[in-house]
């Protein structure tokens, strides 16, 4: 057994009594109430999911295992010659909550090279799709194709299924999925946009550097990949991709079924596709502006109002939980200030950042007028030559796999139940509205 799995076994065993005690001794303690607008309005803010892997504070933003983004980057061992930690170090941290030693990271790096070998039938399945399929379809199909080799599924069908140990098989699938999703994404990139001229894995490289290599990028894109995958990994459990993955896995579907479904949710324009929408919005804006015309605060303001007046959302702005600038936006902005401060697209995105919150406040609908992670991410990709912006959500999907997979391993480790909230009818809501609330 790998050291990481050994450590995880110990962590899960130590943790279990906490969950068991809460259910047994305090199961009926009230922690929230549900109102009609929450019921109709997307279950917003209802406290009904549990995760210890990340927590999203509306004012502060995300913490991974209790650490802010800068603290996470600071604490984890860095890739050789890099400012950023390896994805492997972060994976170990998300799973266990412990900062791994360099030796522990090296072991995961070596393990991922074995796990990361993608079976040929996955590529065949992707190649069987029309080439103008969206790359998120290709990614979702690629992940689903892996299901055939699910260890969890084999264990379930073995007749020896056991609720206490099934997490170990979920861990195998989750680790394989994380290790394989980046090479699958790289394959899709080269297949769809680079004449199917594939670049072989370089076994001397870590996860992020190998992804850069396989899509045909050079330094410092290795750091872009590491930063990008880590920043997009997890945003507690209520967002569509994480929640879908958790929900599907709660039926004891394996990691491949669950994450393929999660990716389909990520592909929505109100969620992960927003990064593609941001670039699309900017390109449309520049086209309308005409060649040689400089963006100004005035014409950016007008473009934002045009979008809002057309009944559309401003992509990259607003959030269901956050009520301030997303620290994932800030982290990417800091990268831009260091590496591409004079890039015209970065300057335009910075100008939108100056103007959009005021416009959204005046518009008066969005509860959070500040930028989210997607407002900044495309600029970096564009700068380094990854200009096929319909691919950007695939990059998000690679990163999000880390959080979703760590979560479903723990879900099985702690024996979380199949998810099944209760629905009501509109007539019931109307009755309770008349009566001033439901009588318990
Ligand atoms: N532009 C225009 N209107 C906006 C808006 C924006 N950026 N953000 C919210 N609103 C509107 C909503 O559409 C809603 O209008 P209606 O009452 O007419 O339905 C109203 O303001 C209240 O919405 P809210 O409570 O502030 O926000 P929600 O929790 O309902 O939605 C969203 C959160 C992120 C979906 C929303 O802010 C949005 O559509 N933003 C633009 C798309 C985007 O950037 N999505 C990515 C979010 C981050 C993420 O998940 N990344 O993956």
UniProtKB/TrEMBL annotation:
The protein's annotated pathway: Carbohydrate metabolism; tricarboxylic acid cycle; isocitrate from oxaloacetate: step 1/2
Enzyme class: transferase
Gene3D superfamilies: Citrate Synthase, domain 1, Cytochrome P450-Terp, domain 2
Signal found in the keyword field: no
SUPFAM superfamilies found in the cross-reference section: Citrate synthase (SSF48256)
Stored PROSITE patterns: CITRATE_SYNTHASE
Domain of life: Bacteria
Record has Transferase as a keyword: yes
Enzyme Commission designation: 2.3.3.16
InterPro entries (UniProt xref): Citrate_synth-like_lrg_a-sub, Citrate_synth-like_sm_a-sub, Citrate_synthase, Citrate_synthase_AS, Citrate_synthase_sf
Keyword entries, A-Z: Transferase
Entries under PANTHER family matching the protein: CITRATE SYNTHASE, CITRATE SYNTHASE, PEROXISOMAL
Family the UniProt entry places it in: Belongs to the citrate synthase family.
Protein name: citrate synthase (unknown stereospecificity)
Organism (species): Geotalea uraniireducens
